[in-house]
Specification:
It contains 5 helices and no strands. The chain is mainly α. The protein starts with 5 loop residues before the first helix and ends with a helix.
Length: 171
């Protein structure tokens, strides 16, 4: 059974993987221009890659579950719960993982982005619950798209921090 919107989910997965490749390239570029790779740099790359692969996993869950001849409601509920829990754990543990590597406070932009990502996870839980809306692929895709969009924002924030650190060392 082909779910409506599957092509869109595959596109999200493709964009996410492409974006993660750029993250790694920027780190390599930074090293090529004379910047050493720090523990924080590795943390940033690992976070970007983890977020990207989570998005790919989220996008592939509904088509996988469709092969089991489950109802569309069950497919969207189960996919939404898995995505919400994984996304929530990633977001809620981020500050502690970051704090273990740097004494610098969490930038406000990162905090705001994390709150937005928690909102996307909450939307997934709303979709899974079926309380306000019938569980659907539209809400699932909107929440995963929001997570991807916030991942791009996170990447731009991290890129600015990485390049700023390199510029300070060059001065």
């Amino acid at each position: 059974m082909e779910l409506p919107g599957t092509a869109y989910l595959y596109t999200l997965a493709t964009i996410s993987i492409t974006y993660s490749g750029f993250a790694v390239l920027v780190t390599v570029f930074r090293q090529l221009i004379g910047g050493a790779i720090s523990g924080f740099d590795i943390f940033v790359v690992r976070s970007i890659l983890t977020r990207s692969f989570l998005i790919v996993l989220f996008a592939l869950l509904p088509p996988l579950f469709a092969w089991f001849d489950l109802s569309s409601s069950i497919i969207w509920r189960v996919s939404s719960v898995i995505a919400a829990l994984a996304q929530g754990v990633f977001i809620l543990t981020y500050p502690a993982r970051r704090r273990a590597l740097t004494n610098k406070p969490l930038p406000r932009s990162t905090l705001a982005n994390n709150i937005f990502q928690l909102g996307a996870a909450a939307l997934l839980l709303v979709n899974a619950s079926g309380l306000f809306f019938k569980p659907s692929g539209g809400l699932f895709a909107a929440a995963v798209t929001a997570f991807l969009g916030s991942a791009l924002v996170s990447y731009m924030i991290a890129l600015g921090l990485l390049l700023q650190t390199h510029a300070k060392k060059s001065d």
